[in-house]
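Box S2. Input/output pair 1.
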Amino acid sequence: MKSDIVAHLGQTGVLLPALIGEGLRANDRVKVRLGVLQAAVHHAHDPLNARFDLREECRAAGLDVLTLEDLVRQSTAGGAEDEAHREIAAPGLAALGAGIWDDLEDMVKAAEAGQDGVASAARARLEVIRAESALGRSDALRETEIARHTGIGAADSPSLHQLVMELHKALNRLSATHAEEQIAGAHAFGLMPQDRAAVEAFMRGLNATAGLKFDHPGLSTTAARTPAGLTIQNDIGETDAHVVVIGVTDTTVTVTYTDVHRARARFFTGLFRDLPVRWSGLDQHTAKGLAEDGAFYLVTGTCEGDLATRLKVLEALGRHLVFLIDWNKARKVLRSWVSKADALMLLDFAARNAIGQRGFLELGGADLLAGAVQHAAGGRIGFGERLDTALGREGACDFLRAVLRISTEALKEGQSLRLARDRIEAELMRHLQRVDDDLLTVVVRQAGLAREVAAGIAGALSGTGDQAGSSDRLAANARRIEQKADRIALAARERGARAGTDGVLVALVNQMEEAIDELEQAAFVASLSASPLPDSLTAPLGSLCRAAVEGAEAAATGAAAAIDVPAGHKLDFEDALRACGRLAEIEHAADEAERAVTAAVLAGPVDLRAGIAALEFARALERATDRLAGFGHLLRGHVLADLST
């Protein structure tokens, strides 16, 4: 139980109000149970006329009426003839006795916690009475013993009933000196005037975010004045060892935090990285009554700033507690879709932005994400495939941030589950579109590299570019660009395969890669032609070079415009189609120029070596424009398909 952990931490003072309340409730129960003992005796001697009239008392004390009434109705008297040895037997009598001892134990514990003078003597008397009694050991008990327990008893031989009455008086005294008041929702006991500001600061932070737990229980706060100062305790959630106890003095705020999950404890301390709180190392402890091996982790934080700083830390403590509820459950869900480190980063983001993870879990958690992937991603994200594989790390994290935010907004604003799911699916589709856009951006980059090679060839041919006069430099530069383009294309293909993108986008990447390959081949051939070419060849070859440059520019323009077509921009749609049409025109012009080169070589007179070089050069450039025209055809189909969806 949480009270056991708090006691283990040496903070029983804050438990006193709850112990007093439990002791008073135990007093109500034990008096009813003693009455049931007496009723069993009466029924055993006069079963026809004895009545069970303790129903209301049982209900008020929280005891099972039917069980106790059945015990009384089945009670019988037996054993020896003489009264001293006569026994009362009834099914459940042993359990009734065990309940009486448990109730007395709760009453004594409360008196001991309140340091009442009766407590030590009451403990000793309880042990003596229990040792001498058969109550609770069997379903039969001597009638004389029942009379002794339920009567007042002599001064030198106090009864169990008399002990109950004395403990009740002691608990009433403690209750009067520890009267409860409410401070911003906290149950406060015995506070001094100077304690109120600290409790109010903590509750101000707690109430600011408590709504983010939604229907989950927890966050009950108790504040009490103890000999050491003010103590504030919060139960956080349902886990027994998940407790925070805060000690407040005139100069210091001390936080003692326990958790069964070391990672969550680290997360909690990390939320205070911008505040002057010194944290001890995480130590492992054990306590009886906890699940598994009883292990939990304890960390202590200390703040010794001025009053304003201490109140700020107290407010932050209250504000952050809600983000610990179901933290581990959310972490397990998130790390199925992204890395462990990114799952922790997302939970930190949710806490720092007052979003939390409870809304996400409330709407379904893992099922919510799986449903979005199934409905919005189709075959693009396979079963069991992580989001960071399909969307990339940044894309996956950005999408999950949106999921956390949308889930919380939906519950806070009372939106329907269907609307929340639709918003999440739309967000996933937007991120998948972003992957498509990234591939088109790669295509634009490829087109830029194609233009760089084509422009270098044109400059070398005309003698005006950077490559003029250096055929080796022209070929080396084209080869470097072609290798770079290959690496870009390989990465794009892998990205497209992971994200299951439209095959047309990968085909665009491949088409542009092939165009660059042809241009690199043209540069290589040009580097082998050492002698100047006759004017009859340079003119049509110059036209081919211009066609290649203009084709690369048109391809870049079309791909850039296609990125914005899904957004519904009419001008981008028109620009993309216009670029596709321009690529077809350029390809036709390149065909004419290539035929002109062939005609000039065959018409002669042209040096054999120069003629062969011119023909290979022209054919490579013409093939490059063919690839660009094919690119334009694919791009046009992609743009029209986007418009139809």
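Box S3. Input/output pair 2.
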Amino acid sequence: MEECCGSKPKKEHHHNHEGHNHDHSHDIRETSVFRMFLPAMISFVLLLIGISFDSFIENTWFKGWIRFVWYLFAYIPVGFPVLKEAFESIKNGDVFSEFFLMGIATIGAFAIGEYPEGVAVMLFYSVGEVFQAMAVTRAKTNIKILLDQRPDEVTVLENEKPTIKKAKSVEVGEIIQLKSGEKLGLDGELLSEKASFNTSALTGESKPDTKVKGETVLAGMINLNAVSLVKVAASYKNSKLSRILELVQNASSQKAPTELFIRKFAKIYTPIVVFLAIGITFLPYFFVEEYQFRRWLYSALVFLVISCPCALVISIPLGYFGGIGAGSRNGILIKGSNFLDILANIQNVVMDKTGTMTEDVFKVQEVNFNKDFNQNEILKWVNVLESKTTHPIATAIHDFVGEIDHAVQLENIEEIPGKGLKAEINGKELLVGNLKLMKQFNISYNQNAENMVYTLIAIAYDQKFVGYLTIADSIKENAKSTIEKLKSLNLKTTMLSGDKSSVVQFVAENLGIENAYGDLLPEDKVNKVKEIKEQNQSVAFVGDGINDAPVVALSDVGIAMGGLGSDATIETADIVIQDDKPLKIPMAISIGKQTKKIVWQNIILAFGVKAIVLALGAGGLATMWEAVFADVGVALLAILNAVRIQRMKF
């Protein structure tokens, strides 16, 4: 994150060719607030005493070199760090930094005998800088607290005895004992038969998630049951949470166009202002009858203070960082401020069907059997037969029927590729599969079955058509309201899927999606997105982030659903929704729009106030006090506006 910087202890300096960049991310807990404000407090006390001697306490000694030395001592605590920064910036090729502006403005004030104003300008500038440092640090700390809630210590079983160890020192393969209510410190594999976890630290949702033996559990999850055992699968620094945290904290390296423009603008704008200040000092000599050097130099110094681009340089990156933080708080990983800008301007949301708008879990929707057959008995047979295969349809039937009846004896079981299964029971033939299987064995069936939208499982017994089951991927709970919200944001919606067209059209009609296309191969999806982009329209693609990699690469922004379990998704997508809730799609777009709105509010505020006070300063109508407001005051207002987004509800 780029910030306008100031005089604070123990700062890290990072200079680059695009401009100065001083990181305010040092820990406020280590550098106490009192210590940060101490130089300003010393200067403030000395300044007040000096002003009292000047205006309120009669004396004969507070003048000349004594007065100068007094105000110099008041200036040094806040002025020296800034002058040092200016010198370091010049050494690194950045002459016209805000430190340089404040340095020459305040030294100039001393040169013409305006000691109190010189001290006051630097004092308020430094106070503003401390507030900026606190705002930036708090924004970063808030994100870290939101995301990284892992315990520092974990209980490890060594020779079946519980031992407390630092989480960072635990090695892969060790066994963690997790008590009820404890938070898991590292990623691992559940060794206990079953356990329920609160995953809110990872997904933003507190709904319990039940895991069974062998399933992956992640750092940050809270155990809700009795004692559970977890085998460590990744080191502390390689956990999923560490990766997500690293991506969010480094997201500011992906600059938004507005942010890049402001940085470039500041590099051009600042030297222009310096030369204008020189002009304000000397040009009136040729146009004014009674030219007073001291008066015009003062106006030029006021002009320099006002011109400091601090409000823009700090508040704009802070606004974007606030947007990234707001996303993190809601389980949305945004991998750069540039993607916030793209989201704000998106026109089309193109989505995959399976796993995005549907659950990716097949369920039996309907059972339609001939009344001449015993439905429960036939379903038991079908359940036993389907248990011989690993197809998702078998799982759906098993979930619907229940436990397998081991008393059922099937013989001569045979799988017919692409069609289904055949077996014998009670000496008679049982067929379970699609309608092609029925045709192969000359089983006559109801013609209406061919027009079914859902996947159809036809059943025949003893050469007679028993009926059918329909199986479908159920639509997600909030999918319909997601599409309604996208439409309320004036976005066009399109569904692309490899599933059969009738199913895709059915889902799209149910949800209110405008355009839907099925039976698509990955290259067909690419062509559909190209058609939209050829109309000069921006596209956000929502999918699983892996199978749809070509489309994600082509779209303006790629959004991955349920990326929590996949490293590949976290790497490839621009935005990762950490749970499977489609409502997070319009939420991410709303965060982008709100961030852009706040950033432009700050740009207009800063330019507006500075333009007015610059004009007054150039005409000699503004004093250093108005200049301080135009610089530090506007910067603080912009910061307060920028941090608002972190508290907003979306």
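Caption for Box S3: The CA atoms of residues 355 and 544 lie 7 Å apart. The longest helix spans residues 584-618.
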